[in-house]
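#struct-help
A.M.: can someone run this one for me? Single chain, 391 residues.
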Amino acid sequence: MCVLESRRRKNLVLLGATGSIGRNAIDVLRRFRGRFRLIGAAAHSNVEEMARLIGEFEVPRAAMFREDKAAELRAMLNGRCEVLAGTEGVATLAGDPEADTVISAIVGAAGLLPTLRAIESGKRVAIANKEPLVMAGAIMRAAADRHGAEILPIDSEHSAVFQAMRSGARGEVRRILLTASGGPFRDAGRETMARATAKEALNHPTWNMGAKITVDSATLMNKALEIIEAHWLFGAPYDAIEVVIHPQSIVHSMVEFRDGSVVAQMGLPDMRLPIQYALTYPDRLDGGLPPLTLDRMSSLDFMPPDRERFPSLDFAYEAGRRGGVAPAVLNAANEEAVKLFLAGKIGFLDIFDRIEDALRTLDINFAGGVEPSLDEILAADRWARERVASK
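D.P.: on it. Structure tokens below:
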């Protein structure tokens, strides 16, 4: 337990409480009980884990995306906690006027509306899910400016960039270098990738993550989405955002300044560190996490990604530069294709094919505006999912 000075505890809402990021966030909260009070938690369907969490932290409000699971949780808690239901219930929780900080860790497009509600409520939003900024980055940034919200990244890569950028002014940045482990198929040939099973794709060499994010790492789509996210988080043009393969996952990302200096943020591959930093920023506190020792830095390798075997990066640059609803289509097509792959209905390389098809047929089948509204973005999201599922 950390020793902290006496101060008012900050109220926190955790969206995606039972997922990989959520569990790591809970561990951070256990280490800083004197600094944070968990006043709200949301999950998709894990009732048992939510009940344990609510009991441990005496959480007064909760929400479940699934209506039936919300009813089940209410019955289990017997009035000890208010339980909201559905996307609107989760969004209501995200906008709780008593919350100081909202952790947005809902996987996929489902996090869009709750994250936007938190931003519109003027919170500090510690964002782990890439999808809201990918789908609706312009809307998110405008809402943050309008309502005085603070968007801080929890992704290890964007947290690293955020930390490294404190070494200079935004106008002095030449390049952002996002690092990627390369996933389980980093050195695999196309034939191996074509035969890859879900079990093999989920065997990540360094990180312990949820199924969807782990498959995204295997296709490098996680890095593709991070390119678009970095554009909106840091205002960097796409030509100034690059990806480099770094198998050891010790350097989490780098920033090159115009004088040639490169500042890297390093640490163990442990999501608790970027979560803690987003919650305690601008302070750096001792959370009792294991330190990075010199022996872990004895060999640090960097190499360019193979964009022929992993076309996800090119998809991201194309969608980002096209703008409009193209990034939302990229994200939705990927989510739907990953679902099909995990269900054994398509092969690993088919993920790329279905995403490419959705992007290629976008202009023919969906007329979105240059600056799309939220309704247009959601309509494009639905169109892309239907396209991928029916192909």
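A.M.: thanks! The first strand starts at residue 10 and ends at 15.
D.P.: also worth noting: Residues 1-6 have pLDDT under 50 and may be disordered.
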